[in-house]
Amino acid sequence: MVTEILVNPYTAIRLFAKTYLAFGDEVLTTRKYKITREAWIASMFLIALDQQSKTEWWLTPVSGSGSPDFNCYSFSRSKDNSFTNRSFLKLEVFEWRKEQNELDFLDALTEIKLKKIIDPNITILCYIRRNSLIPPAIGLNQKLKTISPRVKDIWYLGDVSGDATLWRVTQLYPNTLAIDINYDHILQTKETQSFLHAYRAKSEKLEFEPTGKKVLLTPEFDLKLEE
């Protein structure tokens, strides 16, 4: 039986906040915390999707150096509080900041990320670092349509308030859509369940259940199930 642990996006965001308070800007720049940082980016995106379509999303990191970075699952809850899988999403995270890269946003996206993607079912999420400006979504959408990237869709996450209070998740391709989320509200939201088991039994049906044992989630986003 193959099993993996799924993380609630609110849990991942709370871990990032605690890790940042403990280690400061190192969390934003070093490879040691790369997965923790990307999990925060992915979780902001999933919470925005939840807000838009009233679904409940969970994520788990994918081991290895290829794509995607995270497998994501959405659920509906039954009356007995069990979980039923609704959707599956393969998520690839891409960070961009102008001062760290001579390429503009669209060139960086196409040259660094899109050329490496071979799975047409991948969703790309670009994190725009603070104080970095990019063209409006409609203009980027038109340019991306001329490229016709072989991916499911492309989004970006950026701070639109300047003080990290209001964030915007914007779809760039194949359509355009903007979803605003309040970071203070996210930090004040307490999840009822932090982790789930996802496993395939002999029937190959994907099953989900709350973890009956304590899960340790380290600052480096290592998931450890205690015996």
Count the domains.
Answer: 1
Low-confidence sequence ranges? none
Structural class: alpha+beta
Percentage beta strand = 25-35%
Order of helices and strands: EHHHEEEHEHEEEHEEEE
Q: What number is the mean pLDDT?
A: 84
What topology, given as strand order, has the largest sheet? 2-3-4-5-6-7-8
Query: Given the structure, what is the number of helices?
Result: 6
Task: Give an overview of the whole structure.
The chain has 227 residues and is of the alpha+beta class. It has one domain (2-225). The protein is 29% helix and 35% strand. It contains six helices and twelve strands. The chain has helices at residues 9-23, 26-29, 34-53, 105-113, 137-147, 183-188; strands spanning 2-7, 56-61, 70-77, 83-96, 122-128, 153-159, 166-173, 177-182, 195-200, 206-210, 215-217, 223-225. The strands form three sheets. The protein has a seven-stranded mixed beta sheet with strand order 2-3-4-5-6-7-8. Helix 1 packs antiparallel against helix 3. It is globular, with a radius of gyration of 18 Å. The mean pLDDT is 84.
What layout of secondary structure does this protein have?
Layout: E1 2-7, H1 9-23, H2 26-29, H3 34-53, E2 56-61, E3 70-77, E4 83-96, H4 105-113, E5 122-128, H5 137-147, E6 153-159, E7 166-173, E8 177-182, H6 183-188, E9 195-200, E10 206-210, E11 215-217, E12 223-225
Parallel strand pairs: 4-5, 5-6
Antiparallel strand pairs: 1-9, 2-3, 3-4, 6-7, 7-8, 9-10, 11-12
Helix pairs in contact: 1-3
Which key terms come to mind for this protein?
single chain, 12 strands, 6 helices, alpha+beta, 29% helix, 227 residues, 7-stranded mixed β-sheet
